[in-house]
Amino acid sequence: MKVMTPQTIEAVSDVVCDLCGGSTTKGNGFTPEFATLQADWGYGSNHDGEQYEIHLCEGCFFSTLATLKEQHQANQTISEHAAEAPSAFKPSRKPS
Ligand SMILES: [Zn+2]
């Protein structure tokens, strides 16, 4: 026999973008669509013990990605050993 007890369960219904403050959910029935910039700095780093978790909406993510690509490009023009943009800047999976 199962003994049932009513319980309250918390679930994530939305994730707010930490950059623009916008919702990452398009409405009822949709799950939040967001990116996470995460770091957990440990011993030996300059930020030992610091943790970061920044949530970005789709627009802010691609804006940030464009900024990172520009920064990488600028670093390449300074460096003698120019390298192609890292694969991390490209989607690891695309819809088929
Ligand atoms: Zn945003």
Structure, described:
The chain has one helix spanning 58-78, and strands spanning 35-40, 51-56. It is α+β, with helices and mostly antiparallel strands and 96 residues long. The chain has a domain at 15-81. The chain has a two-stranded antiparallel sheet. The protein is elongated and about 70 Å long. The N and C termini lie far apart (48 Å). The model has no long low-confidence stretch (mean pLDDT 91). Residues 17, 19-20, 22, 56-57, 59-60 line the site of zinc ion.
Residue stretches low in confidence (pLDDT < 50, at least 5 long) are: none
The hetero compounds bound to this protein are:
zinc ion
Task: Give the amount of beta strand, in percent.
Answer: 5-15%
Judging from the principal axes of the Cα atoms, what is the shape? elongated
- Order of the strands making up the biggest sheet: 1-2
> Count the helices. How many?
1
Mean pLDDT, to the nearest integer, reads 91
Number-wise, the strands total 2
- Helix and strand content put the structural class at alpha+beta
The percentage helix is 10-25%
C-alpha-based Rg, rounded: 20 Å
Spatial gap, N to C terminus: 48 Å
Main sheet: strands, sense, barrel = 2 strands, antiparallel
Q: What is the helix/strand order? A: EEH
